[in-house]
Amino acid sequence: MKFSFKNDYSEGCHPNILQALLQYNLEQQAGYGEDKYSQQAKDLIKEKIKKTDSDIYFISGGTQANLIVISSILRPYQCVISAASGHILNNETGAIEATGHKVLSIETEDGKLRPEDIIPVLESHKNIPHQVMPKLVYISNSTELGTIYLAEELEDLSSFCRKNGLYLFIDGARMGHGITSEISNLTLEKIAELTDVFYLGGTKNGALIGEAVVINNPDLKTDFAFNIKQKGALLAKGRLLGIQFLELMKNDLYLDLAKHANTQAMKMKNAMKERGVQFLSDTYTNQIFPILNNELVEILSESFEFYVWKKIDEKTSAIRLITSWNTGDEPVDHFIEIITKELS
User: Fold this and answer.
1) DSSP 3-state assignment of 78?
2) Rounded distance, CA 267 to CA 270, Å?
3) How many CA atoms are closer than 13 Å to the CA of 306, on its beta-carbon side?
């Protein structure tokens, strides 16, 4: 049976979560996220980010989180700025556009946005009122290319957005992996300080389902719950999400799981680098993009599942390998064994 490095969804959930769901299963609790476990989870998140005044909502998935946040924040004539590699552009079937908001894309080599990338977009949208109004900057940490924002980069971007009246929203589907990267100097506290909205992704980091949306800007809190309900994202049995995040937030399990995934990916990356393999991007998270000859790609595909991310030329391709919170040493060692044999 092949081992999957294809995505973060190949795994189930952490045993602590299953145990907690079973333990609390026969208790009666209030619905729609008003249960005590959801409240305890929210309190723990507020403690981690050191912002007691943030509003927190649990939503089942990343696409739902993105479309609900963006459609709630923006007026009909306003639009989103995103890197061309952004999830909302490439992997959400036009969900943002379906809510009535255009997405303006910017090509970047590393999947990150910087003030100098955004300035030309603002300059080219001054034909008021004939063009859409750029109002929200969407970024991911870690990005879709596995790269991360350092604290100074996020500080610069946050400052730029505030000076120019733009909201800053972080897609945190892989937030844990971003801040536990060996090169990261960001913390959840710092992210809460610098953003208007972000979310903590649980689905890709130990949960069955679930993302925790954190609203930091007081101006964006009003009536947010109405938008969740209208978009069909308000679970009647909301404790399903609350219990999961309560377990993930306890004893820093959320960060420990992400760090493990990063560590396993770096074992593979370092083994390939030692054998001269080049990479599409220099990543330090659980996503790596090695460039390999097509014959080796075929050999690896006999034992592993992964995406062929990009054809480089007739002979080589970049593949994407994703490790998870549950990736053990055995598949990683087997992967390294094949690489060592074929590249020796």
Assistant:
1) strand
2) 5
3) 26
- For 278, the 3-state DSSP assignment is strand
| Whole-prediction pTM | 0.96
Give the integer Cα–Cα distance in Å for 12 and 295.
32
Tens digit of pLDDT for each residue in 28-79? 999 999 999 999 999 999 999 999 999 999 999 999 999 999 999 999 999 9
Alpha-carbon span 64 to 234, nearest angstrom: 11
d(CA 100, CA 109): 28
Residue 305 in contact with residue 3, Cβ under 8 Å? yes
Contact 292, 277 (CB under 8 A): yes
Among candidate residues 225, 235, 239, 241, the one with its CA nearest the CA of residue 68: 225
Cβ atoms of residues 93 and 85 within 8 Å: no
Q: Which residues of 235-267 are buried (b: 16+ CB within 10 A; e: fewer)?
A: beebbbbbbbbbbbbeeebbbebbbbbbebbbb
Residue 47, Cβ neighbours under 10 Å: how many? 11
In one letter, which amino acid is 110?
D
Question: CA 193, CA 216: separation in Å to the nearest integer?
Answer: 8
- How far apart CA 301 and CA 297 sit, in angstroms, is 6
- Residue holding tokens 């990338």? 117
